[in-house]
Write a structure and sequence with these properties.
- The structure holds two protein chains of two kinds.
- By secondary structure, chain A is of the alpha/beta class.
- Chain A has one domain (about 25-269): Purple Acid Phosphatase, chain A, domain 2.
- In chain A, about 30% of the residues lie in helices and about 20% in strands.
- Chain A has helices spanning about 1-20, 40-50, 70-80, 100-110, 130-135, 170-175, 205-210; strands at about 55-60, 85-90, 115-120, 140-145, 150-155, 185-190, 220-225, 230, 240-245, 250-255, 260-269.
- In chain A, the strands form two sheets. A six-stranded mixed β-sheet of chain A has the order 4-5-6-7-9-8.
- In chain A, β10 (about 250-255) and β11 (about 260-269) form a beta hairpin.
- In chain A, α4 runs parallel beside α5.
- The model of chain A has no long low-confidence stretch (mean pLDDT about 95).
- By secondary structure, chain B is α+β, with helices and mostly antiparallel strands.
- Chain B folds into two domains: about 1-55; about 55-220, Porin.
- Chain B contains four helices and nine strands; from the N terminus they run ααββββββββααβ.
- Chain B has helices at about 5-30, 40-55, 195-200, 210, and strands at about 60-65, 70-80, 85-95, 100-110, 115, 120-135, 160-175, 180-195, 215-220.
- Chain B has an eight-stranded antiparallel barrel with strand order 1-2-3-4-6-7-8-9.
- In chain B, a hairpin with an 8-residue loop joins β3 and β4 (about 100-110).
- In chain B, α1 packs antiparallel against α2.
- Classes of the chains: A alpha/beta, B alpha+beta.
- The interface of A and B includes residues 17, 23 and 72 of A.
Chain lengths: ~270, ~220
Amino acid sequence: MKKTSLYILFIYILSFLNSCELFDIHPYDAKITGKKYINKENILKIESQFSQRDTIRYAFISDSQRWHDELDDFVKVINKRNDIDFIIHGGDITDFGLTKEFLWQRDILEQLKQPYVVLLGNHDCLANGEEVFEQIFGQVNFSFIAGKTKFLALNTNALESDYSNPIPDFSFIKQEESKDLDRFEKTVVLMHARPTSEQFNNNVADVFQYSIKQFPNLLYCNNGHDHQYQEEDIFQDNIIYYGTPNIGKRQFLIFTITNDSYSHELLSY
Amino acid sequence: MNFFLIRAKKIRLLTLYTILSFFTYAEAYSGVPNRSFVPDSTTTRTLKKTTFSLIPSNYMIQYAGSIGLVSLGSGWDYGKNQRWSTDFLIGYVPKFDSDRAKITLTLRQTFTPWEIKLRSRNSYHPLRTGLYFNTTIGKQFWFSAPEKYPINYYTFSTKLRLNIFIGQDFSHQFSSKTSYFESVKFYYDLHTDELYLINRIQNKYLKPVDYLGLALGVKLQIRRR
């Protein structure tokens, strides 16, 4: 009798310790506790909240790997404002692809009052990172419509894969081109690494540019990866690529899209 | 051409060689003595001692510790008052939310400086500390970044982790004088690895519960005759 109760006590203690998440099974264990499929849920919010809006304003941040303090401060800064509709993270939320890095950064971003989406960065692909990313955030290629603008988020981390995975995925791009045509008038393309980057499959850079220009009224592109502010007409065709600094620099971009134009500003905090 | 491949093969061969050499040594010394060679009592004692030092001192099972959900292994105790211990463990990581389960190998060096004798054949070691290397088997993990990347693109390894730990243990001597196992040892370790530490050093946002892990283990000590 005494022995049985001792065993029960032992099991209780074990399960208590386990619930404290004190046990680390493995750095790449892909043991996800807490919220999953965040992009999908937040896209539903963005599409329903802003469907009737002419003007939308979003913050674009990127490369927050190993800058937990700075990301945490960013969340506090954004939560003080009430003019930002949503936040886009351009990828690299982990440095080593560790499961815990994904969870730490997710928990910081979850403090945001506004909906947010996260793109896949090259560091997020390391080891089994991409599998973890797909569980926590969702598909690596996705799109959503805010107001009258379609946001096309594309995985461009070609160096992280081989030819078995099409990166960029032209069949996805093609499929998106004709989807929900009646719901949007303008297009913005989002990616982690821009054409000409060492991550990008530059063999298809021109084809890539051509295919995204088939979308209705392509305004500009957003990218991260280079850890600096960029404003460049890469293909000399009036399509500007705006790169945002890494969050470690305590800087980010704010874009405002109105009926007939758009503007952006670089903010420091 | 491909240094990474050659190195990986070499490491595999070396590991195999080390393991095999353990067995052959043990056999050579514990086998029936050659007829033409009749050892005196001192030689026999030395030979017996050598044999025993090559056979593990204990078997163990461990829960967590950044090396798997459950790990099995064996250890060798040595030095004055058996203060030093070298352990080898094989760990199993379930697939959880990834595509496949993983197997890991661990080599651990432990230092246990003090022993406190308690009543009824119990003893307590207030400190056990040391470090362990852990390697994960699988194609997605590499020792150094593959050649396709520019030089110094990723400067760390996804395959090899270095952990440091600090913990305690309790041991209980069985009353039997002839059983195969002479005692059982319960230990716990608080541990962290270099990648968690780098994250911690740069950010005060992370709390100890974020970057420290707890491991629990049981060791069964084999009787020495």
